[in-house]
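Let us begin with a simple case.
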Amino acid sequence: MKNKQLVQPYERKVIYFDEITEKDVFSKLINLEQLTFELTDACNLKCKYCGYGEFYTTHDKRENRFMDFNIAKRIIDYLFEIWRKHPGKASIRKIIIGFYGGEPLLNMNLISDYWLYRNIASCSSYYFRIQYDNKCHIVG
């Protein structure tokens, strides 16, 4: 690159806008609108432009790991326990469940296990919408 002075090393800076209290965090959990699971850091593609690709150095190392359903289940159980005890702002909870990762569909078993478990654990006062980040390379 000709203009090396334009390329600056990335510096991580922590900026505190104000103090976050335990009450703030609990309120966010009670009124949670979106929950995203990183299902895997594995990917079937090696895109150069990917945030985890060779053009970027500010990410953690990708190790082809997969989230175990028991971890997702513990998170779901924890949140359902909070929601049962503490009503949120809306009478029907609308929650987006996101599946993210290198290629989330490489961990399709967790998505289907989650779906079956959610149907058992939930009740009529919950409305879930599922979304996932996908490269559309293994769909079909």
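The second case is a distinct protein. As before, the sequence precedes its structure tokens.
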Amino acid sequence: MKLLAQSLKSLLERTKLSLDKLLIIGSTGLVGSKLAFAAAGHGFEPYNTQNARKSPFPNSTRLNITDRDATLRLVGEIRPKVIVNTAALTNVDYCETHKEEAEKVNVGGVRNLVEAALINDCRFIQISTDSVFENNEKVRAVRDQYSSPTLADNLAEALLRLAKSHENGVFHTAGRSCVSRQEFVIKLAQVFGYPTSLVEPVFASEFQQVAPRPKNCCLRVDKAERSLGMRFLTAEEGIRQMRRQPQPQGDSSDRLC
């Protein structure tokens, strides 16, 4: 029995050594947590960072990416093969009224990570998104703004495939559908069994939004699908897959971005 335990321990250590180190910046967020869960299945040993919220994952370290010295030190200690940054201020209205803070995090923080990646010869993947969608029981849904809703699990798979890839550039990793906010909410209601009469269509001009929103944020994913060897889900496919997933406990975020 002792010999078997030693053999298993040795096997685990060899397996761990064969995995590439993946540093996930922002593992407490939706996409970051999906990456941490799925990393091992793609040949990575995940290392995670947290800031305002405590990460539930092992190998987690607190990091504020606006702290250049701390960022360079952590990346130098871990020496990951790939860094994926999922940390950002994403509320566009907040960013519009807190421009200095937004630039410090979304520009300065990224600059620190890029510098750390260059020093340590790491592959670096940066995520950019137009908005985060939130659903309510009674909703007014904009009929004249279009986007490509993306299931977080689908996005995490794309990021891990990209982390293994040697291709560089800009990749559109998003859902295959181009739908208005109204169409998306109606699909959500239909799949989850709510009456579509709860959805009230409105024009974007009826909302008092601090930051202007583009009318069309839809993305073509053909290049990413070819390069990564995968297929992105349509909005309805993503919603149906989300419907089949276990409900999260406690504080949760929507799985479609």
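The first helix runs from residue 2 to 18. Strands lie at 20-25, 44-50, 60-62, 82-85, 123-126, 139-142, 146-147, 179-180, 199-202.
Keep these points in mind for the review questions at the end of the chapter.
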